């Protein structure tokens, strides 16, 4: 299903280590420069979605599980964080943690239910369960239904950094993104990641070797859910709201599109994909409903002719593993 | 009507330089042999020599093929397996391929008639395989190994295909059933069918075969007629490692 | 009963009827999904969108071509089914042999395109479709009033479902379908044009979805979003039933519709999610589905 995953080490003296360091340096430079080149709010949104896509990609690219309802983790964390910041008055970093805890817990429950099912069944189960979460969010009083939670205070991170200042908020968001991105990188290149790879390539063999395959998959699922929640919670602080769109099915579809377009199973693919899709949506907003059609057409085109995605194609051409 | 086998006549099947791949695996590296009308030809060789792949390649059931496989003079590399079947070819695979979700009658009647004449009638088929007539309504998955083998052979006899490829028809079967299959093949030969056989059990093959080709590592490495079998016993034992 | 407010027999039977109606749609749609999955190994995410197109086709036939409901019952599935066959022949067939998840992704994209196009032309609001005059009115059964159209939907859906089951399990054509599902390579080697069978099977599955759309048109409004609204529930139905069994899909669909209807009577807040909850329970006990074959 995915391109060859990163088998790199963090050792800068190996070829893979160097490739990773080069691309990372480029990405860091772009992140630092971005708020001065583009509208900071737009870049912050892109970073949140990039983290969301990276979290989603952890499942499909490295475990082989297509979660078609990942918005449930983004959105639930978003709501919890918004509520924690606005109603409980928590500092932003604590509110975010509350959101992450929620999505992680939800990930544990959803994962436990669905992890025993393979491939397509797994995808359908995630569709159904995320719809259930959506209905819950529509009904639950604390989400305020169609209105959502508005006016989420940005507060002072760690009691010190005033997040209502755009540049401070931006680097706070960027730091969170980098944390999540590097967490994924470390996971994929750890012994845990190697086992996940073994499971994806030959599950019966992994079982016969004594690995509790279900546990590894579940751990990866919870991690993916928690990181998606991290993205969602951060987004709630950045955008100062949480709404039904965040748990909606369109959101789940969009993160799949971002990852597919950027390159499933590559480290940087989801980041590039998120950037492209967010830009595309901003540009295409003037076309109203045609955005859906265009997104669908891009989906179809990618699956038919561009399965490796942008980064996948670049990686194949350069023979790099990124 | 059965036609006399003539060495001068163009072979019904002529395979030259045939290569075949399953997925990424390159199994056949250049197979050469031929089969004339009305002959029974046997492919011998160890496990993994490529005998089954050869049959499948002729039938167009592999991932990729190169080289030449001419049936009645016409090139078939590049044809899909349904087109090849309609030229008069039929296969009875090693795994038998009896459909478990169909009953015996449905299995038997499944392969469509590809020629108006030339197929055996149901009466003839039941005469050859009386057990099948009793089990018509049983599910395909409920048959014993021997019954499955008989069904797998029986169902290609109805279609009018005159070139039959049988892959290990006696594998894992009781001696009594093996004899029955041997009699059936001899009967089919008398009727003028052309048969390409893959067999590990060359004692069985020797009761029906006209010629043998020995395969190893995806190539044909030796060939001899049935009359030369005893003379080549030593070599055969070496090839087959028995 | 036990919820503090009295539930009248009228309410109960009324909801049971609605439950059976929804069950009819669940059954038809999950049947189509199961047939397509069996042959193509693809989960047709576009199924909901094509159900919607079926309803719109009926509307178009009536309002723009002057062809009434009875024509629509035949023409809509034919037209939409043909469109489905075209989709398979041009797009889906390129995915044969690949990981089935790509099929899911492709059909998801198709669903977005189809729904987006209809949403652009028709907006988000719905259009009504009149109940055919022959089926209007109701019969008084004594314990309840049974609207004729609703009775027709249930009866006709059951008829179509069981006819499909019969065709697949008991006829020669069905034998080809079952065999090709089990071992397409061998069936092709017997001289059967399996690729064409696959195309027609997809078309047939889509036609079933379109038929459900025509049946639904007089009951629900004809809206571009009607497919998206129903697809998640249909997926849950399919997971609960397990996709191995045609009969299983049909029975599960009807039963779950009724369960949903009953939940609306006794515990209305949960009616949206009861099927998902049942899915969660089934996953804990028998992940392959109630009628599914364990992998």
Structure description:
The complex is a heterotrimer of chains A (322), B (242) and C (295). Helices cover 71% and strands 1% of the residues of chain A. Chain A contains 13 helices and two strands. Chain A is globular. The model of chain A is unreliable at 2-9 (pLDDT under 50). Chain A has helices at 15-37, 40-62, 71-86, 92-114, 119-139, 166-188, 191-201, 203-208, 213-239, 249-262, 269-284, 290-305, 309-318, and strands at residues 156-157, 161-162. With 242 residues, chain B is of the alpha/beta class. In chain B, 31% of the residues lie in helices and 26% in strands. Chain B has a six-stranded mixed beta sheet with strand order 6-7-8-3-9-10, with helices on both faces. A four-stranded antiparallel beta sheet of chain B has the order 2-1-4-5, with helices on one face. The termini of chain C are far apart. Chain C is an all-alpha fold. Chain C has a single domain (9-99, 110-125, 144-285), classed as ABC transporter involved in vitamin B12 uptake, BtuC. Chain C has eleven helices and two strands. Chain C is globular. Chains in contact: A-C, B-C. The A-C interface holds A 1, 66, 68, 113-114, 116-121, 123-125, 127-132, 135-136, 139, 249, 253, 256, 260, 288-300, 302-304, 307 and C 37, 43, 91, 94-95, 99-102, 104-106, 108-117, 119-120, 228, 231-233, 235-236, 238-239, 269, 272-273, 276-277, 279-280, 283-284, 287, 295.
Write the topology of this structure.
The complex is a heterotrimer of chains A (322), B (242) and C (295).
Chain A: H1 15-37, H2 40-62, H3 71-86, H4 92-114, H5 119-139, E1 156-157, E2 161-162, H6 166-188, H7 191-201, H8 203-208, H9 213-239, H10 249-262, H11 269-284, H12 290-305, H13 309-318
Helix pairs in contact in A: 2-6, 2-9, 2-10, 2-11, 3-4, 3-9, 4-9, 6-9, 7-9, 10-11, 10-12, 10-13
Chain B: E1 13-22, E2 25-35, E3 40-45, H1 51-59, E4 64-71, E5 74-75, H2 81-85, E6 89-92, H3 104-109, H4 122-128, H5 130-134, H6 145-157, E7 163-167, H7 175-190, E8 194-198, H8 202-206, E9 211-216, E10 219-225, H9 233-240
Chain C: H1 9-40, H2 47-63, H3 69-90, H4 100-122, E1 138-140, E2 145-147, H5 148-170, H6 172-182, H7 184-189, H8 194-216, H9 226-241, H10 246-266, H11 274-285
Antiparallel strand pairs in C: 1-2
């Amino acid at each position: 299903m995915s391109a060859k995953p990163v088998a790199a080490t963090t050792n800068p003296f190996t070829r893979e280590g160097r490739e990773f360091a080069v691309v990372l340096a480029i990405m860091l430079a772009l992140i630092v420069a971005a708020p001065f080149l583009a509208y900071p709010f737009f870049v912050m949104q892109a970073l949140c979605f990039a983290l969301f896509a990276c979290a989603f990609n952890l499942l499909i690219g490295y475990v082989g599980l297509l979660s078609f309802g990942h918005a449930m983790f983004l959105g639930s964390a978003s709501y919890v964080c918004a509520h924690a910041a606005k109603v409980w008055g928590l500092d932003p970093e604590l509110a975010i943690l509350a959101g992450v805890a929620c999505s992680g817990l939800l990930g544990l429950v959803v994962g436990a239910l669905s992890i025993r099912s393979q491939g397509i069944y797994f995808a359908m189960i995630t569709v159904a369960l995320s719809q259930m979460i959506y209905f819950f969010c529509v009904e639950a009083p604390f989400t305020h239904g169609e209105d959502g939670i508005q006016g989420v205070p940005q507060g002072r991170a760690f009691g010190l950094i005033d997040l209502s200042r755009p540049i401070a908020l931006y680097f706070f968001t960027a730091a969170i993104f980098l944390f999540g991105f590097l967490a994924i990188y470390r996971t994929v290149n750890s012994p845990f990641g190697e086992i996940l790879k073994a499971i994806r390539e030959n599950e019966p063999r992994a079982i016969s070797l004594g690995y509790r395959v279900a546990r590894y998959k579940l751990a990866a699922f919870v991690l993916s859910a928690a990181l998606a929640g991290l993205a969602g919670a951060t987004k709630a602080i950045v955008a100062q709201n949480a709404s039904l769109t965040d748990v909606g099915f369109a959101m789940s579809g969009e993160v799949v599109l971002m990852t597919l377009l950027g390159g499933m199973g590559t480290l940087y693919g989801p980041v590039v994909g998120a950037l492209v899709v967010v830009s595309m949506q901003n540009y295409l907003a003037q076309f109203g409903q045609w955005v859906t059609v265009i997104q669908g057409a891009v989906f179809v085109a990618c699956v038919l002719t561009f399965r490796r995605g942008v980064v996948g194609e670049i990686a194949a051409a350069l023979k790099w593993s990124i | 009507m059965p036609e006399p086998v003539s060495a001068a006549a163009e072979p019904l099947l002529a395979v030259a330089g045939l290569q075949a791949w399953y997925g990424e695996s390159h199994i056949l590296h250049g197979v050469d042999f031929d089969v004339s009308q009305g002959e029974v030809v046997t492919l011998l060789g160890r496990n993994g020599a490529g005998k089954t792949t050869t049959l499948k390649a002729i039938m167009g059931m592999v991932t990729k093929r190169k080289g030449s496989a001419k049936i009645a003079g016409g090139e078939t590399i590049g044809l899909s397996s349904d087109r090849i079947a309609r030229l008069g070819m039929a296969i009875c695979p090693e795994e038998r391929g009896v459909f478990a979700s169909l009953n015996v009658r449905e299995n038997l009647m499944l392969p469509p008639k590809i020629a108006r004449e030339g197929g055996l009638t149901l009466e003839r088929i039941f005469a050859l395989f009386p057990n099948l007539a009793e089990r018509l309504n049983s599910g395909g998955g409920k048959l014993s190994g021997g019954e499955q083998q008989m069904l797998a052979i029986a169902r290609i006899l109805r279609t009018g295909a005159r070139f039959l490829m049988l892959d290990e028809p006696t594998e894992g079967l009781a001696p009594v059933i093996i004899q029955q299959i041997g009699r059936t093949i001899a009967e089919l030969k008398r009727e003028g069918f052309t048969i390409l056989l893959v067999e590990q059990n060359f004692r069985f093959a020797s009761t029906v075969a006209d010629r043998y080709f020995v395969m190893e590592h995806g190539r044909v490495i030796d060939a001899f007629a049935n009359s030369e079998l005893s003379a080549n016993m030593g070599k055969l034992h070496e090839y087959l490692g028995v | 009963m036990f919820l503090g407010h009295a539930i009248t027999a009228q309410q109960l039977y009324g909801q049971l009827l609605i439950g059976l109606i929804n069950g009819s749609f669940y059954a038809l749609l999950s049947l189509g999904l199961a047939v397509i999955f069996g042959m193509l190994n693809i989960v047709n995410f576009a199924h909901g969108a094509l159900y919607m197109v079926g309803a719109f086709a009926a509307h178009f036939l009536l309002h723009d071509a002057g062809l009434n409901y009875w024509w629509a019952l035949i023409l809509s599935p034919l037209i939409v089914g043909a469109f489905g066959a075209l989709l398979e022949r041009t797009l889906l067939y390129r995915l044969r042999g690949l990981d089935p998840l790509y099929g899911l992704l492709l059909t998801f994209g198709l669903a977005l395109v189809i729904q987006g196009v209809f949403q652009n032309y028709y907006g988000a609001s719905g259009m009504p479709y009149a109940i055919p005059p022959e089926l209007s009115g109701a019969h008084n059964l004594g314990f309840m009033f049974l609207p004729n159209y609703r009775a027709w939907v249930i009866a006709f859906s059951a008829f179509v479902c069981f006819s499909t089951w019969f065709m697949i399990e008991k006829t020669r054509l069905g034998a080809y379908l079952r065999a090709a599902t089990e071992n397409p390579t061998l069936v092709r080697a017997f001289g059967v044009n399996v690729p064409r069978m696959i195309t027609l099977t997809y078309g047939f599955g889509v036609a079933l979805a379109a038929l459900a759309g025509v049946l639904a048109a007089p009951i629900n409004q004809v809206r571009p979003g009607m497919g998206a609204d129903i697809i998640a529930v249909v997926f849950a139905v399919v997971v609960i039933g397990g996709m191995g069994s045609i009969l299983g899909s049909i029975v599960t669909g009807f039963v779950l519709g009724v369960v949903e209807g009953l939940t609306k009577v006794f515990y209305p807040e949960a009616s949206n999610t009861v099927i998902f909850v049942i899915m969660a329970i089934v996953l804990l006990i028998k992940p392959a589905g109630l009628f599914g074959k364990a992998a």
